[in-house]
Amino acid sequence: MNKRKIFNDPVYGFVTIPYPIVFDLIEHPYFQRLRRIKQVSLTHYVYPGALHTRFHHALGALHLMGQAIDVLRSKGTTITEEEARGAAIAILLHDIGHGPFSHTLEHTLINVHHEALSLLFMEALNVTFDGALSLAIQIFKDEYPKKFLHQLVSGQLDMDRMDYLNRDSFFTGVHEGVIGYDRIIKMLAVHNDELVVEEKGIYSIEKFLIARRLMYWQVYLHKTVLGVEQMLIQAWRRAKALAGQSVELGVSGGLRYFLYNSPTGDDFGKNRKELIGQFAKMDDYDIMYALKTFMQHPDFVLSFLAGSIIDRRLFKIELQNEPFDPAYIQKIRRAAMEVFDVSEDLVGHLVFHGSESNRAYNTARDEIKILFKNGEVRPMSQSLDYGIQSEEIRKYYLCYPKQLNKPTQAFNVG
Predict the structure, then answer these.
(1) Per-residue model confidence as pLDDT tens for the chain (414 residues)
(2) Cα dist. 355→267, 320, 323, 326 in Å?
(3) Considering its fold, how many domains does the chain have in total?
(4) Fewer Cβ neighbours under 10 Å: the N or C end of the chain?
(5) In sequence order, what E strands does 48-193 have?
(6) Do 115 and 16 belong to one domain?
(7) Do 217 and 332 belong together in one domain?
């Protein structure tokens, strides 16, 4: 059977599946689940076109990996067919451990990082495919001698970031995120088994970092997106609390399992088959169905949050560069307790605050290295005026129901 399949991707055009095993992995139910998990969670509440999935992204990253391997080979880097296949599998499966709504519920529904879950999925699939994923797992874990293969999967200039910036920009319509991915890939090279960028690509890298910073604050951490995602987190925290009291919530399947149980990373290691099986049953549709069920629940906080998310009655969100005055927060909490008749131990689900930060370029991680024409290799931090991209930007948020806008006296601090 010919398994050299072609997908028509809206971003790159025709994408060829390079190896039969890659096609088999795509056909596996674990991977098909990614069709039902949106790439950017609830971002479509602000950008209606942002309905693309982790499935789209994985195929796009696979396509870019193939291009990168071809470029490196053309420059004399030895990459065997087995290594190319391993890198393709590693990038294809790099996000397979994402749960419903991706990062939003990552530490609320299950307190295990998605990369750890991706590795567990890969190990489970390695058993199914008789060890054919062993090299891919080595590359994914950065245990393979050719470090540049791991850097193509997970690094500051990896195919993951290259695709999601391009794809998320395409589907949101935020053109500031568009990057010259093809030029960047053509500028890649290998020096001492590490990924480097040729000197003439330095300004393409600078634009890439600027695009990443702009996308974070215009899309991923857009104040309205941040607000609705925090509402979802609060709904789930309330549901978990009720489940901990053995309150019936009307959900089933894998979602019920993880609401009424809280397995740790160690538990996943010990009972991998059972827990991965339960986890693989969950996707965005389960969460949305649960929210619609919660709308009818007698618990006011849960039903109010669920209904607000489903009907897009979004909370007010304030954003600023400094922490909020505790007295200001307390005034709003007291107003919420009065308006909604909730106790002090529950009002935190309706009035909540925190902070988000982003650093477009992290000098604490493996730096992007620039290869100069004279053969010298220097970190990017010593090669260009990158300062604004390396600084951490932190913003503080405060969310509360819009009904609290009416009793303005509640906000008179002092």
Answers:
(1) 455 689 999 999 999 999 999 999 999 999 999 999 999 999 999 999 999 999 999 999 999 999 999 999 999 999 999 999 999 999 999 999 999 998 888 888 888 889 999 999 999 999 999 999 999 999 999 999 999 999 999 999 999 999 999 999 999 999 988 889 999 999 999 999 999 999 999 989 989 998 999 999 999 999 999 999 999 999 999 999 999 999 999 999 999 999 999 998 889 888 989 999 999 999 999 999 999 999 999 999 999 999 999 999 999 999 999 999 999 999 999 999 999 999 999 999 999 999 999 887 877 778 899 999 999 999 988 876 655 466 788 999 999 999 987 544 444 433
(2) 30, 9, 8, 14
(3) 2
(4) N
(5) 188-191
(6) yes
(7) no
Nearest CA to 357 out of 383, 390, 393 is that of 393
Question: Does 210 share its domain with 342?
Answer: no
Answer yes or no: are the C-beta atoms of 219 and 182 closer than 8 Å: no
Place of tokens 């107003």: 335
- Whether residue 305 sits in one domain with residue 211: no
**What count of other Cβ atoms lies within 10 Å of the Cβ of residue 364?**
7
Rounded CA separation 177/170 (Å): 8
Please report whether residue 235 resides in a domain.
Answer: no
CB 237 within 8 A of CB 405: no
Does residue 38 belong to any structural domain of this protein? yes
Residue 257 lies in a domain: yes
Domain membership of residue 234 (yes or no) is no
* One domain for residues 137 and 259: no
Same-domain pairing of 86 and 161: yes
Cα 127 to Cα 135: distance, rounded to the nearest angstrom:
13
Q: Which structural domain range is residue 126 located in? A: 6-222+363-389
| Length of the chain counted residue by residue | 414
Tokens representing residue 412 in the block? 């008179």
DSSP 197: E
8 forms beta bridges with 14
The whole-model pTM stands at 0.94
Give, for 273, the enclosing helix (H) or strand (E).
helix 272-279
| Residue recorded with tokens 């390396």 | 390
Examine the domain organization and report whether 103 and 161 are in the same domain.
yes
CATH at 321: 1.20.1250.30
Same domain, 322 and 253: yes
Question: CA–CA separation, 370 vs 361, rounded Å?
Answer: 15
Would you state the structure tokens that stand for residue 372, as one six-digit string? 């100069």
